[in-house]
Structures
1.
Amino acid sequence: MKDSPALSTLVRAASAYYRGAGFFARQFARGKLGGDPVFAAILADGLLHGCRSLLDLGCGQALLATWLLAAQRCHGAMSRWPAAWPAPPALAAYRGIEINPREAARARHALRQDGVLSLQIVEDDIRNVDYGTADAAVILDVLHYIEHRAQERVLERVSSALPRGGLLLLRVGDCAAGLRTLYGQAVDRTVALARRGRWPTFQYRSLQDWRALLARCGFGSSPLPMSQGTRFANVLFVARRA
């Protein structure tokens, strides 16, 4: 899938949102969207099918938003849209929350080009800010940055923001995957050190503990491996609010 014409077209279309946001923003978008399997999986597996309003916690420079916007634009025009892929979600509203001011600025730059949807970037801490309501929520590689009790509180508040049957996509690292776990944790620390200027402490859980936590917060969940083609040991929990 990584080398498919459809995926290459989508990566170019989504990266174009960062034109004028600086060399790093656009190159990072190209590399991340083309190399991280979660973005292709969201479309290929229809994980956000039917979603009209999306809450994106720790959204960074809003890669998921630009990816979905590009998919909406390309679906009708792309002659090579994969036959096995469902139509992309027809988003009407997106709310991204990001604590890093530089990332939030890049996100706002990217989304200012699209005046069709209700697009909002909130520069704040996901532990404190109002989530509003949404059909679905996405948290990719974020919760291990905050303490265990705060992780639980965030998931409780996400549950409250979603309707019954509402979807949560939560990606976490498998802390029992040996060398791949160590590699992922080393990358986490290096990135956090570069962004924050200090050596961070992360709060990891086992996959069993994540699933139990989701259940306590009102979600039924199933895990999907989500690090294909990479050195990481990531798992995406597809969770539904009971």
2.
Amino acid sequence: MAGLRFRLAVPRYCFGEFILSPRRRVLVRAGREQPLIPRYFDLLVLLVERRAEAVHRREIFDHIWKDVVVSDSALSQAIRTIRRTLGDDSRDPRFVRTVSRHGYRFVFTNVVEEDDDGQWPMASAEAAATPAAANADPYEPLLERLTRPAATPTEREEQREAAELLHALGTSEALRRLGTRAGHAFARALLRDTRWDAVAPGPVPIAGTPAAVATTTQLLRLRWQSAAAEVRARWAGASLGGGIAGATAGAIGGLILATAPGSAASLAVVPVLAVIGGCCGAAGGAGVGAGLSLAESSVRSRRTMALIAGGALGGGVAGAVAQWLARWSLAALVGVTLDTGGGLEGLLIGGAAGLGYGLATARTEGGLAAPRGRRRLAVAGLTAGMCGLAALGLTLTGRPLVGGTVHLIAQASDGSQTTLAPLGRFIGEPDFGPVTASLIGTLEGALFGFGLAFGVTRRT
């Protein structure tokens, strides 16, 4: 039993005037706790535990942000906050050194590991003094830095640091002093954005405040800039996932159609339907994926509602474009006029994808959701279920999806061998009836949702 207790013991680390306790999840300086948000605390623990080596940036991302995708600036922000908390200087580091083109290393040499026995030094009166005691007005220099236009990346980092310090001093007082001075819209947006990186910040409302529209615009610009590369990667992943799902559905449908009793279709229909399904799936995935990615990178509160709206908008736009192209192509090339669907279908399936994805990743914080293993399959499964239900509802009301549209085009074209009537007879209907349409539509929607979610959560 003693050996078991020894193996389970978690030490605490003493360096300089600091005590770092992974078990208690606290960092203490001269008897006074130094607050850090959970991910930043975990990063400090990782660097201290691995102090014998430089930890690669990719390893840090995989360890600290293992369930989300974030930009490189998120790691820079975390290191900057840790250094500020430790009183460190990047130009002459005492604790955390940047290893060029690699990562970071904890370089303080005298780190003592000891039993975390619960005995802690008491805070001295000097250590307990508030930051405001050393400066009669600490707000004004920070507000001036926040409202002054930044021309370089260093100045932009200094602005974020100023916003974090203002949260530590007092968010409400910082907003009161900010008022409507020049640059207040950007300053309020930055305070709103950095509150997710601060410990116990106050609220930063936008609605009902001066220049609410300008503040919202600035906030969206800040978030899109920081997540631009991740949004592009997720958009491409969603398009690829939707395309693979569509091609798979088309190939399976073509194979069943070619082998169904009484079907005049040859095996040549398999690649044709696979290409049609792949193109439709890729286009839908691109639209819905773009909407989901932009919504997830822009909105951190009411996240699920934003994802529903983003998915619906992206799907609706993609569907409307596909609908127009299909009608124009059919009329121009073969003289066939059909009332094909697209816009409404994309809107509803995109919204359903946003609902499923939002519910499955509701606990995501600090970045774009990127679950792994079984959790990723669970996200894809729930998204598939929601898209399948939306597709079922559409087919029950007579709205055709890809398979149903192919059937309508084949019916309107003399001599076509790709009518899906044999599929209906294969499952017991005399023609391509409501049961067949519902079954095929549900499978289309579910496969699309699965491929979309699997693609959008792909880590690059």
3.
Amino acid sequence: MKRILLATSFLILASLACNLLVSPKNAQPTTTPSLPALDSEKRCGDGVCDGPEDSQSCPQDCPPASVPSDEGADEGAGGEATPLPTAESAPTEPAQSERPLAFGYLYSSVKLDRTAGNGDCGIDPWFSPDCTMGVKIWWDLHMEAYAATPLVIIPDGANRWVISNHSDVASKYGLQLSPATGVYRSISINPGLTNPECSATIEGSPFDFQVMGTRAEGLTELIPSANPVEHIQGSCMQAGFDWETTHLLFGWAAALSGVPTNLRVQLNDTFKETTGQYTFKNSVDTNPSPQNRDHVVVELGLLCTRSAAAGEAAPAACPWE
């Protein structure tokens, strides 16, 4: 703004100087309205700048116009120029995207052991549409799985953070997180305990593991999403079968949230083990058919780290601590 004012002053002064130079004889100068005009003899030294006189041929009658410059206009009493304010130097509130990010690491393990035996068809989500007679034989089943992922912890207003491992979120901050996957560490099924005429094999493939969450008002809420699927093949009395099941997922969710279709978990400060580390542990008996036959043990840990790089999960204080 000050540079605009200086430029405007220059134009005004230059315009006034031009008016004085081309004014006819005895005209009233606009710069000194209270002084009478002097009669002119149209010669150098008569005190009037007219006729052929100009600042070059008669500087005593036509002194050069004095125009303030940018450099001198802002000089203080000491003669030093005062720097003009700029957009860069103006104090502003830091943009949210420029506030420091933090990093973390989330892991979870789950173990499920199923008691074999006769029962009913169960309830959702374990209920199978193939169970049409209301009676079902549940086979012995064992599964263990593990999932882990680096996280980015993003400031989101006063005393609130967003926690995520989603690639589209991390890319907005110039980060590339390592792929997050879960794996079955061990898995087996044994139909022979209850159905000697049956045989089966079971496999579990690596699965995606995503996380969104928030930290606010002393509570960390994490919402993992995963898609573990078991593939069971076999035969009973020479009749083959090929099934896909999600028994691990239901037990995992039931142990985290109490609901077999919801992996959500909440961590308050009672789960804090040390600076930057929170651990949730739980065990449940679930899958009523009619008695609970799935015995599940789960652990979930949140660790704040110094970096988002894979293999560099050095512990650090969480930003809310």
4.
Amino acid sequence: MTTRVSMGLATIGLGVLLTACGGGDSDFTDQSGKKIADASKSAMKGLDSVKVAGTIKTDGQEMTIDLQTNDKGDCTGSIGIGDGSAELLGVGGDVWFKPDEAFWRTSAGDSADQILAVVGDKWVVVPSSGDGFDQFCDIDELLDQMLSSEDDEDSKYTKGKTVEVDGDDAIAVDNTSEDDGTSTGYVLVDAPHYLVKIDKTEGEDTGSVAFSEFDEKFDVEAPAEGDVIDLDNLSG
């Protein structure tokens, strides 16, 4: 049950981000859109921690994410789907989530009442499957999926204008393909050339996602043992 919910959300959350790219710096902005995009991917893959926040819509379903993650298996933040939301917490590779009632009713369907009766207000263990919520707590895997491309020969990068994003200069790069439409990545002009924002307004998946707090440390603490439940260990 938990795994199915997790996998579904991971698919919704990551699908729109697969086309993300960007670039940035005075001489740097004179380069082609493709080279700017490649430089941005390289900078992002060198990160030890990052915050990701935004809203994505796919198949008529809206999903929100507001999460910090690092390369030690730590994460903290929340994920929302529909009217519901779930806190997410990871410590050293162990991951838990705590959904509200609306989240369970949106995600679990007919099983929602049964799950709510069992779980209550406890943290739920996320299985280490590599294809669910645990992906959000592994920066390398998360960014690899977010910044990878499908090597579409029809994909085209077009450099845009330099604009201000949260007080920093960033250059826009459009990534257009016949299958996915156009997404616009905004890359810092000054090194390191991090991708700071992605906007996608057309295609099957749309939304806006921002990246910030690059390589900043954050504190996490595992929930108390009595506040945790593992649905996979329950019988009946």
